[in-house]
Amino acid sequence: MYAWIKKITPALVFCLMTMSTWAQDVPAPATLEDGLQVAPLSMMELSKTICGWGTVRANRSIDGNPITLAGKEYACGVGTHATAKIVVKLNGSALRFRCLLGIDDETGGKGAADYCFTGQGENGLRTVIAEGSVKGGETPVNIDLDVNGFKYLIMDFPQGGSDEFDHLDLAAARFLWHDDDGAASPPFIVSQDEMGQGLACATRTFSLPGVRYMHRLKPVHATAQVSVSGLPSGLAWNASRKRVEGVIEAEGEYTYFVTVRDDRETFCDTVHLCVSQDLIQPVPFMGWLSWNVFEEEIDEEKMLAMAHAAQRYGLDTLGYRYLCLDDWWHCCATRPADGQPDYDHAKFPHGLAWLADSLHRMGFKLGIYSDAAAQTCARAFGSYGFEETDAKRYAQWGVDLLKYDYCGAPTGQQEAIRRYKAMGDALRHSGRDILFYICEWGPREPWKWGSETGGTCWRTTYDSRDFWDWRAKADGGHIGAMQGYDGNKHLWPYGGVNRFNDADMMMVGLHGTGKSSSHDFASYLTMTGQTSYSGMTQEEYQSQFSLWAMMASPLTLSFDLRSIRADDLRIISNKEMIAINQDPMGQQAEVVCDTIVGQGTAPCRFEVLVKELANGDVACAVLNRGDSRAAITITPAMLGLETGAYAFHDVWGVAKQDVTVGETGLGVVADSHQTRVFRVRKL
Ligand code: GLA
């Protein structure tokens, strides 16, 4: 018998022997079932699963009660909360997966969840084995899956239309596996990133001809060995820094191969590199979106007013060129009878083609918004099923960007990929260069597939609000700047030229005047007992701008540009910060240090980020997440730089002159919530 089973024998025996309720028609005891070994799911490493709320539990419901479905208690099983995900490596031994799936009786009949069981084969191809939904108060669904031949079983449990009480139980969940020759091993849970690939990085990358290219490779297991072969001339493998770098002069499609070896397996991946002069937006796009401040009250007059104001303040020359209509430019909630998309003629009396033309003549670009379902998030008509019609019409109007949302669409990842690809293809065939901006907020990990659907950037988080630290709900919902930052910062291996992780619109300039960006103000006041709140502090706005620039997130403004405060203008027009964001090597900063500084009553959490730049400089940001002023010492070694002398240039001009820094480093003082940024040059 396999080692782990020996180790947990008493618990396993308890679980198996108490299971007269194993499944409705299966007799107990069940150490063997249908002549096969039994591996209960609850005995596996549940910490590697994803659970939408609370902590996933073995043999208990999410609230810690005995697992109870339709009045019947189950001794064994797993209690979780949608949206949940469990990935099991089947190890060549598992033949069946069985459980009873339902919403625990503890919700009193509330709650719902969808389920989708997918098998992934050795070749990476996926097959949906079973899908459906369960509701509180209903009889559980008997799941009995043939998983033979798959390498992984992926169990996806999105929320089923309700927003709470989605207490999903997998009662009596177990795998049946064979151990004919005594050498097989039972299935086990893996984290999503361990699944089927040793590399958690982009495998479709881009570069500009003649510009320094960098592809940082992050193996899933930090200790794994990575090697690269078949590199095109101009590129070299830097083994100690785990990155491919160099310059390719000639446009074209190139490939190279990455091999990752850990103590269990060897993974191979092919990297496709496209070197092109013609990428629509090789660096993060910069601009303005209408939603946060105007919601559906957007019209032609306001769009033109934004353009004129942007010119007056010089924002266009700084790079803010995409002016985007968000939700509700539409005529109506349902698509007109002729099947063509139409705009609101009262709001846009001269039409969208005229608006696009006017903006183009002023040097701006026009963005538009739609959704991969029948309706958008604010319930205007969407584009699902009409992708080609809409893409063609957008092209005729002269649109330059499409933000494509995901409200009302099915939750699964594969379906999302299909829907985004349908629109990506349609845009590609529309006859016009239209930047494709994916907005599904992150749950389906678009950083892993966005490029394949034609996307240039993708939201990685839910909607940002005018708060520094805010999470409306434990399992998603509106968030503050720090939640957006935390949700985006670890995705650096997926960022690069023409593929950007987007942490949503920035709050600078709003000062509580927004519409959607102020949605949670009332709850905030109730929660804190305060009487007034008018948005983040100036220090916090500047920090958000700095962090977004470092993360190569698109720089999108969302306030009314008609009147810009001098202190806001100072933030959004810092050319050195913008140059770091717009660097043609397209790298996303990596957090190289996350530490607590100081002790006693006011310790501060500091994070240090490094972004490699095309000319060989690095940008370094120092964020103080604590509540008081504190200092940290930054050394070249900490930034991954070789020994030597460096000039530290203070991007926000706190230190008036560049400082020469050697091995002993530089003491950096930062106020509470301040981000200091330095451009570091080798001397
Ligand atoms: C979603 C998006 C927002 C905005 C609104 C419009 O919530 O995430 O950025 O586009 O829809 O309804």
Q: What is the topology?
A:
Blueprint lengths: L2 H5 L1 H9 L14 E2 L2 E5 L16 E2 L8 E3 L2 E3 L2 E5 L2 E6 L4 E10 L8 E9 L5 E10 L5 E6 L5 E6 L9 E11 L10 E3 L13 E4 L4 E5 L8 E5 L5 E4 L4 E5 L4 E10 L4 E10 L10 E4 L1 H4 L5 H13 L2 H4 L3 E3 L27 H10 L3 E7 L15 H11 L3 E5 L7 H16 L6 E5 L17 E3 L11 E3 L2 E4 L1 H9 L10 E3 L18 H8 L9 H13 L4 E3 L8 H7 L2 H7 L8 E8 L6 E9 L5 E7 L5 E5 L11 E5 L8 E3 L4 E5 L4 E8 L1
Parallel strand pairs: 15-21, 22-23, 22-31, 23-24, 24-25, 25-26, 26-27, 27-30
Antiparallel strand pairs: 1-2, 2-13, 3-6, 4-5, 6-13, 7-12, 7-14, 8-11, 8-13, 9-10, 9-12, 16-19, 17-20, 18-19, 20-21, 28-29, 32-33, 33-34, 34-39, 35-38, 36-37, 36-39
Helix pairs in contact: 4-6, 7-8, 11-12, 11-13
Summarize the entry for a quick read.
By secondary structure, the protein is of the alpha+beta class.
Structure description:
This protein folds into 4 domains: 3-194, NPCBM/NEW2 domain (Jelly Rolls); 204-275, Immunoglobulin-like; 286-581, Aldolase class I (TIM Barrel), CATH 3.20.20; 590-682, Immunoglobulin-like. The chain is built from 13 helices and 39 strands. Strands 30-27-26-25-24-23-22-31 form an 8-stranded parallel beta sheet. Strands 1, 2, 3, 6, 8, 11 and 13 form a 7-stranded antiparallel beta sheet that branches. It is globular, with a radius of gyration of 27 Å. Residues 1-11 and 18-29 have low confidence and may be disordered. Alpha-D-galactopyranose is lined by residues 291, 326-327, 376-378, 405, 439, 441, 463. Residues 291, 326-327, 376-378, 405, 439, 441, 463 line the site of alpha-D-galactopyranose.
